[in-house]
Specification:
about 290 residues, Rossmann fold, 2 domains, single chain, alpha/beta
């Protein structure tokens, strides 16, 4: 598993400038060397200015390079003391794989993707997504095929919190609903590839109607991003066969992030909504 310092860098990574990301990438790849390197040496290796290195350090919460070096030394010591077995990431499926190896490969690959989520999701964008959903009069969710699983999960969680929201399996209905949204509404399009034609057309119609549009996808430069006011990109990697299994895992976690972010934004209000929703269906519990 990654140490706490790397997780802290990844948490702020998406909000960094490109030059600062170069520094972050170098530090994560050369953690053991950083305590011995001067400010100038780090800047030279990253091909950036010294102030850029310091900006990156401050972006993750440290006052200067000395404090950051101390944190690096501590992180290295903790990691070396854990004596964890090496985890093999990045497996793809091939004809020579054995059945008994599949559980390990699926778990380790999913774990890597979930850790990468933190690096790719902008905290500022996430906060704006929570704010937009919280203030929405109506929330539409658009998806097709495998993404319908994620859409239904999001729909259920939002309904439990008392939001007015809807998800339609018929893509014609999605587009008609999108065309009737207003500036007070939010439209959420979920597409792993970012190229699902029906989802894109619904998002395009929602944006034309003036609704705030939120796209959840795996690729930052995909077509759906053109129609997104807020873009949440879960990763930049594609593993195999459309990556349906692993995209589902990362997007389910993202739905949980949205759900918990909304609850924390007004805990008393949403805790009350959850209690009320649970009361409505309590008679559905099976009893002997």
């Amino acid at each position: 598993m990654k140490n706490e310092l790397i997780l802290k860098i990844e948490e702020r990574y998406a909000d960094m400038r490109t030059s600062e990301q170069k520094v972050a990438d170098y530090i994560m790849d050369h953690m053991d060397e950083i305590p011995k390197m001067s400010l100038g040496k780090i800047a030279s290796e990253c091909n950036v200015s010294e102030p850029t290195v310091l900006r990156m350090v401050k972006a993750i919460g440290y006052q200067g390079l000395r404090e950051f070096r101390t944190a690096v030394i501590s992180a290295i010591a903790v990691t070396k003391g854990e004596h964890q077995n090496p985890v093999l990431y990045g497996y793809s499926l091939n004809k020579d794989d054995k059945v008994q190896d599949i559980p390990r490969k699926v778990v380790t690959t999913t774990a890597k993707i979930l850790e990468d989520n933190l690096k790719n999701i902008s905290v500022k964008t996430y906060e704006n997504v929570i704010k937009a959903i919280k203030n929405a009069q109506m929330i539409d969710i658009y998806s097709v095929e495998n993404s319908n699983v994620i859409a239904k999960d999001l729909l259920t969680k939002l309904l439990y919190l008392g939001f007015q929201c809807r998800h339609m399996d018929d893509t014609y209905h999605q587009r008609i609903a999108a065309s009737n949204l207003t500036s007070k509404d939010v439209a959420i399009g979920i597409s792993y590839s970012g190229c699902s034609e029906d989802t894109i057309k619904a998002m395009k119609a929602a944006k034309k109607s003036g609704a705030t549009t939120i796209a959840v996808t795996n690729f930052k430069d995909s077509v759906i991003s053109k129609y997104a006011d807020l873009l949440i990109c879960t990763s930049q990697d594609q593993l195999f066969y459309g990556d349906a299994i692993f995209s589902r895992a990362s997007q389910i976690v993202l739905v949980d992030m949205i759900y918990m972010g909304l609850i924390v934004s007004d805990y008393e209000k949403y805790a009350k909504c959850l209690d009320q929703s649970a009361g409505v269906i309590k008679d559905k519990a099976y009893k002997e």
